[in-house]
């Protein structure tokens, strides 16, 4: 690459993208209008892409986007909103979003979770940190994906078969 090499801190994942709209946290106004008018017909939403924000200087834009999602939840409280974090350049951005997005469920990898709470990267400590996360945020579920396995922690009783199917299909 002309700009130099890119390496990940651990053997996890690296998602490379170039999309100037993502860097602006752009949401298509046509989609926004459609969704606002059809909120009652939706049973869920997956929110992501915030990890592309380069610095906290964009905080007002993030706040506006988080504010844009809140009416969805207010108009239809039963809608299930899952927020996918991402490999953030700045932990403060992720913390801001965790505190401001109206989420029922959070998805992240173990590196993102360890940025919130330092822990030994074994399954039991990841599970404890995920449990603390859902209780701290008042959400119903956290799904932590590592390079080797997925840990799903929920406050609700879930049939194991349903959880396995959801993990296989990448839902809830």
Summarize the structure.
With 172 residues, the protein is of the alpha/beta class. 42% of the residues lie in helices and 14% in strands.
What does this structure look like?
The chain is α/β, with parallel strands linked by helices and 172 residues long. It has one domain (20-169): UDP-N-acetylmuramoyl-L-alanine:D-glutamate ligase, CATH 3.40.1190.20. Helices cover 42% and strands 14% of the residues. The protein has a five-stranded mixed β-sheet. A hairpin with a 4-residue loop joins strand 4 (141-145) and strand 5. Helix 3 (59-75) runs parallel beside helix 4 (91-100). The radius of gyration is 17 Å and the shape is globular.
Number of helices: 7
Secondary-structure element order, as H and E? HHEHEHEHHEEH
Q: How are the strands ordered across the major sheet?
A: 1-2-3-4-5
What class would the helix/strand composition place it in?
alpha/beta
Query: According to CATH, what is the class?
Result: Alpha Beta
CATH topology label? UDP-N-acetylmuramoyl-L-alanine:D-glutamate ligase
Low-confidence stretches: none
* Envelope shape: globular
Question: How many structural domains?
Answer: 1
Report helical residue fraction: 40-55%
* Biggest pleated-sheet summary: 5 strands, mixed
Name given to the CATH architecture = 3-Layer(aba) Sandwich
- Give the name of the CATH superfamily: Ribokinase
Rg calculated over all Cα atoms: 17 Å
How many E strands? 5
End-to-end gap: 37 Å
Overall pLDDT level? 79
Strand fraction:
5-15%
């Amino acid at each position: 690459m002309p700009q130099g090499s890119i390496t990940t801190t651990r053997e996890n994942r690296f998602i490379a993208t170039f999309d100037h709209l993502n860097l602006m946290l752009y949401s298509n106004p046509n989609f926004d209008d459609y969704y606002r008018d059809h909120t009652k017909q939706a049973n869920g939403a997956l929110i992501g892409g915030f990890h592309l924000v380069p610095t906290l200087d964009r905080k007002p834009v993030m706040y506006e986007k988080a504010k844009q999602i809140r009416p969805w939840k207010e108009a239809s409280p039963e809608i299930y909103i899952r927020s996918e974090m991402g490999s953030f350049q700045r932990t403060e951005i992720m913390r801001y979003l965790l505190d401001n997005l109206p989420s029922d469920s959070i998805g992240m990898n173990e590196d993102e979770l360890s940025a919130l709470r330092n822990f030994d990267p074994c399954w039991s400590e990841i599970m404890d940190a995920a449990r603390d996360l859902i209780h701290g945020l008042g959400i119903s579920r956290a799904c932590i994906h590592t390079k080797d396995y997925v840990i799903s922690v929920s406050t609700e009783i879930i049939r194991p078969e349903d959880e396995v199917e959801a993990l296989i299909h990448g839902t809830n």
